[in-house]
Amino acid sequence: MAHQERLPRDEARLRDEARAFLAENVPSAAGLPRSLDARIEALRGWQARCYRAGYVGRAWPREFGGGGRPPVEQIVVDQELAAAGAPEFVNVVGLDVLGPSLLRFGTEQQRQRHIRAILDAREIWCQGFSEPEAGSDLASLRTRAVLKDGHFVLSGQKTWVSWGQFARWCGVLARTEGSGRPRHQGISMLIVDMDSPGVDVRPMTQITGHAEFCELFFDDVLVPEENLLSNRGDGWKIAMYTLGHERGTAALPRQVKLRTWLDRLAAALGDRALDGRALLDDPGAQVALARAMIGIEVLRYHAQRTVGEFLSGGAVGPESSSVKLLMAEAEQRLAATAAELLGPAMEQADPAEQDEDAFWEETYLYSRAASVYGGTRQIQRNIIADRVLALPQEPERAGGARRLLD
């Protein structure tokens, strides 16, 4: 069973309320439509239901549609959502990435216009950061926006844009200032209406068979000047804030989900047999499960430390790169363990076990990206070496530790 935390009375009451709500309302994975378009609509409804129940944006300001509660309450809810196996909210980019940036840097008009629609999933957001020649090295981005007659004229290309084909708005990093300055300067963030003329969205099918990502092409797209987030040249600062906020809270519920998956794997191994012997009875399988559990437990302790710093008002600094590394390693180890231990039995699986097999197959395939998205494994190690351990760098790699991947 997953580790149980002792909570203060108010948080324990919230946990029990959330568990009761989820027990009655969480949709099963098998019950979600297989068609991506239909699934997105179902997930919109799921997020809206959770928002009405008070479980989305619980710590966001009340005046913009949030709950106005302490941040720790949202973390309690997020852990319960993960433990219940609830599907990820469809507007995850808006909730975890761009919504917090709007709250921190947006104008009153921008916050009033967008925040509530992010929370209830009426309008999905996507994130236009990475480019074909600027993935981990985000400061090399080439998308440009030139101010002319009250509009920014936006031209360029973005890639690895999650749910771009379903998004109404995109937070786009573009170069707005001239040359002759450091690469990370002169970048601004624009709020781009995805229905604007000149926006071309091209879905990309992954190895899982789903088209969760898109390429975006901007061909002289007109973006009103009032859709600039903060000031010109503040894009890098906003991106760094976005990254810190995302890493400050994401790891703990992810750890809960991984532990839930570990328990699910152990149950599947106990239910299945090969040559008349339960897979779970194999000592090698038990050792592999133990190794996966150790990785998840190590992640839990590091995530708790990071969240503690976040809740205390401290900045989530470069140390969060170690959490990102641990999170990717724990997920990949667990997925690989499932593939190795269940693989032989899958060939003889009962038809009733096909959904379970499909879950683990997709989990394994998707896990390969865990060491790439959000900053590659190599980039995270560079950050740790440079900004945590202060190790000397090779001159030609001196800028690598400050790179960022969408």
Strand order of the largest sheet: 1-4-5-8
Largest sheet, if any?
4 strands, mixed
Classified in CATH, the superfamily of the largest domain is Butyryl-CoA Dehydrogenase, subunit A, domain 3
What top-tier CATH class of the largest domain fits best? Mainly Alpha
How far apart, in Å, are the first and last alpha carbons?
A: 34 Å
Category from helices, strands and their pairing: alpha+beta
Task: Please tell me about this protein's structure.
The C terminus is likely disordered. This protein has 3 domains: 111 residues, Acyl-CoA dehydrogenase/oxidase, N-terminal domain (Butyryl-Coa Dehydrogenase, subunit A, domain 1); 109 residues, Butyryl-CoA Dehydrogenase, subunit A, domain 2, CATH 2.40.110; 166 residues, Butyryl-CoA Dehydrogenase, subunit A, domain 3, CATH 1.20.140. The chain contains 10 helices and 10 strands. 47% of the residues lie in helices and 15% in strands. It is globular and about 75 Å long. It has a 4-stranded mixed sheet with strand order 1-4-5-8, covered by helices on one side. A 4-stranded antiparallel sheet has the order 2-3-7-6, with no helix packed on it. It has a two-stranded antiparallel sheet with strand order 9-10. With 406 residues, the chain is of the alpha+beta class. A hairpin with an 8-residue loop joins strand 6 and strand 7.
